[in-house]
Amino acid sequence: MLTITDLVKEYPTGLRALHGVSLTVDKPQVVAIIGPSGAGKSTLIRCVNRLVEPTSGSIALDGVDITKLGRGALRKARRRMGMIFQEYNLVERLTVMENLLSGRLGYVGFWRSFRRKYPAADVQAAYALLDRVGLKGYENTRADSISGGQRQRVGIGRALMQQPDLLLVDEPTASLDPKTSRQIMRIIVELAHERGTPTLLNIHDVPLAQNYADRVIGLAAGRIVFDGGPDELNETVLTEIYGEEDWSTTVGGGDDDGDDDRPGGSDDLEKAAAAG
Q1: pLDDT tens per residue across span 18-51
Q2: pLDDT tens across 166-208, in order?
Q3: Dihedral sign for Cα atoms in the order 27, 239, 206, 201
Q4: Coil, strand or helix: which one is 62?
Q5: Hey, CA dihedral for 67, 46, 239, 263, is it positive or negative?
Q6: 3-state SS class at 177
Q7: How many CB atoms lie within 10 A of CB 249?
Q8: What is the 3-state secondary structure (H, E, C) of 226-259?
Q9: pTM of the prediction?
Q10: Whole-angstrom distance, CA of residue 253 vs CA of residue 267
């Protein structure tokens, strides 16, 4: 599905954010990228859809090298890659439903979208996703009047409205409280698994990566220093990724509220919506 080979990103300042990164995601799995600030996590995610232009290397999606595509071909390729942003990137003056349907802009054409004339199947799919992410009844609510957790749920729904072949997620919980962060992660992971969508997820929270990811990649100074299962994240591995730290309070961390927030757990999505 996704093959990244010898990826390098060097900024005009001379800072090299990525040093020959290579990895393959060849099955529907949630791959969490962890590492300290400045390790290159966001750069890696954004190079995949060329929001950041790689300096060298290749990024192949189903055998098509994204780095070699011209503007028109890149626009079409981006339809296949849903993106969930840390800062939500919603149109604040539009409603929740309008923001969700903007995920279909690459398919319906400018004038049809300008007139809000989306196909009935797209509208039906948007209602289903609203219910699925815990926002049923919010379709006519403006995006600037809902909470951060709810905005992130809108962002998840918008990305999935693209029906992507690959989901890219950039720090989805960075500005959320711990409870809402777990709920957002559970929604992302459940929907990715249900739809069979490979997911590359950049996250700074090690316990969230342990509890929700199928696979974890550790970046340090722009290089992959770990690639394995979340159960392999022991103190030795984490020290290699982050440096010396008291990992006894972090490794194996998880819920402290008695609820089961894992995929398939008992803490349902209506509860997530209420938490906001």
Answers
A1: 999 999 998 999 999 999 999 999 999 999 999 9
A2: 999 999 998 889 999 999 999 999 999 999 999 999 999 999 9
A3: negative
A4: coil
A5: negative
A6: coil
A7: 8
A8: EEECHHHCCHHHHHHHHCCCCHHHCCCCCCCCCC
A9: 0.85
A10: 18
